[in-house]
């Protein structure tokens, strides 16, 4: 039995989104989420397909990678294949050899789930740990407290408001209305929502996109931001509460988010909205 590496066609993305959803579990490691693919979809379906790498054994999908950048691969692995040595060896071989078309030459980064065998193999190859990330989770068994701001669910006619808040929240954001529409046309967006928070004057002050992976599965916040002119007023906490409530309405068992540990404001905001800090994770970096 051999393990095969491939890049999907656009038509093949739907089933892969379904696999990523299946692999999410509150009890398992944090995995690349359908929402990560959904957020990437703003660049279009073609570019999304080109950024995905799939490892299968006799047609059974065992690992799915997404190249967030040409030098950053984020991996999800089927829960019962996390310790699969043959799979880990094949992924390792494909990652270290640029000709296989996964990662470029030089300094590159890989994110893989905790407990993945491939992590051990990459450390043995001399890879180092990189920047720490903090995952946070809020259980959604109980109803979420009121956000205490007005919250709109964004439809196509309000895309411009959503993208304007994004650009005012993240330095260097390239989110445009065209990209919002590309994202909203993607398979994962069928179980996603964009929310915009408004202050009492009606200004759009905060925004978030939430992605459900289906009932009983962890849902993802990606991204969340507060307009730079309106920070420090509790809107970050408020839009995060609204995001958690929206995910609960979509049937999610928990709300999940990941942020660089260095983003102390984001970690504080999620904690203020009832999220619990999970153990830090670190990408692995090839230093040569
Ligand atoms: C992080 C961000 C969302 C905070 O928004 P905000 O509206 O200012 O946050 P809030 O006023 O709701 O604050 C919530 C809590 O976080 C704390 N906090 C917010 N920014 C902080 C900072 N820079 N440093 C330390 N604490 C901070 C507040 O003190 C508050 O804590 P408290 O409830 O214990 O008093 C905002 O700065 C932002 O959009 N940053 C850029 C985008 C980003 O990083 N998004 C998250 C990425 S995943």
TrEMBL record:
Give residue ranges for domain N-acetyltransferase: 149-288
Enumerate the InterPro entries for this protein: Acyl_CoA_acyltransferase (IPR016181), GNAT_dom (IPR000182)
The protein's matches in PROSITE patterns, at most eight in alphabetical order, are given as: GNAT
Protein name according to UniProt: N-acetyltransferase domain-containing protein
